Amino acid sequence: MSSLSLAVRDSTTMVRRNLLHARRYPALTLNVVLTPLIMLLLFVYVFGDVMSAGIGGGGADRSEYIAYIAPGILMMTIGTTLVGTSVSVADDMTEGIMARFRTMAIHRGSVLIGHVAGSVLRSMISVILVGAVAVAIGFRSADATVLEWLAAFVLLTLVALAFTWMAIAVGMASPNGEAAGNNAVPLVILPFISSAFVPVDAMPGWFRPIAEYQPFTPAIETLRGLLLGSEIGHNGWLTLAWCLGLAVLGYFWSKSLFTRESR
């Protein structure tokens, strides 16, 4: 077999292994979907009228707040998968399976590729499920074209890919699964301190830089622009720059740790 065929075969096997692990731990998989769903329902049905009145400066209109919050919740769904990814990688590093893989005639990079592809696939399935619930409770994007919907899906995939590489690097750098779960928490918190729930302009002055100068805020604003027709401005380029930077950082960080452990 050629090196490319070997890499594809072994990577496919590792993706299948990753997905089988997810199926064996359904509670962890359900939490990935349930957390953003609970946040969506909570903010729409409990805080929706108050939040929409505060943002709009007028009467309460829950449908407008559903349109505002849904893109943020979709990005948050990606964040909820990151802790599980870090823990899974850390467990592989500490439980001896990596050492066994190194003794086998498999492509070296397939182990990391399996974790990346499996995590991104779970993220996108979760995004689709959460998006379906958002549509069911009233989210509408009548003005978005097919091309804009496709661009929105690509955007979500790029964000998932970038943060997955970071989560894998965090997991490989952690001494065990418990530490990996704790170390990945900042990646999960970022969507909560972004523009997911309220506009940056409505935040206190001292807090605005925290929400503005981070990757999730431009990603959420770009997604809103694609789905709702709002102004994207420079957020699209910022999102691409963040995704590229985080993916490259996570890739080389993970690769260096994997190579060091292989010696």
Structure summary, number of beta strands: 0
State the end-to-end distance.
Answer: 26 Å
**What summary fits the major beta sheet?**
none
Which consecutive residue ranges, at least 5 long each, have pLDDT under 50?
Answer: none
Assembly state here?
single chain
Percent strand: under 5%
Mean pLDDT: 83
Please state the structural category. mainly alpha
Query: What would you report as the Rg, rounded to the nearest angstrom?
Result: 19 Å
String of helices and strands: HHHHHHHHHHHHH
Total number of helical segments? 13
Envelope shape? elongated
| Fraction of residues in H or I helices | over 70%
Question: Can you give me a brief rundown of this structure?
Answer:
This protein has 263 residues and is mainly α. The chain has helices at 3-24, 26-45, 48-56, 62-80, 82-94, 97-102, 110-136, 146-173, 177-183, 185-189, 208-212, 216-228, 235-262.
Give the secondary structure arrangement, pairings included:
Elements: H1 3-24, H2 26-45, H3 48-56, H4 62-80, H5 82-94, H6 97-102, H7 110-136, H8 146-173, H9 177-183, H10 185-189, H11 208-212, H12 216-228, H13 235-262
Helix pairs in contact: 1-7, 2-4, 2-7, 3-4, 4-7, 4-8, 4-12, 5-8, 5-9, 7-8, 8-9, 8-12, 8-13, 12-13
Describe this structure in words.
The chain is elongated, with a radius of gyration of 19 Å. The longest helix has 28 residues, at 146-173. Helix 4 packs parallel to helix 8, helix 4 crosses helix 12 (216-228) and helix 12 packs across helix 13. The mean pLDDT is 83. It is 77% helix and 0% strand. The protein contains 13 helices and no strands. With 263 residues, it is an all-alpha fold.
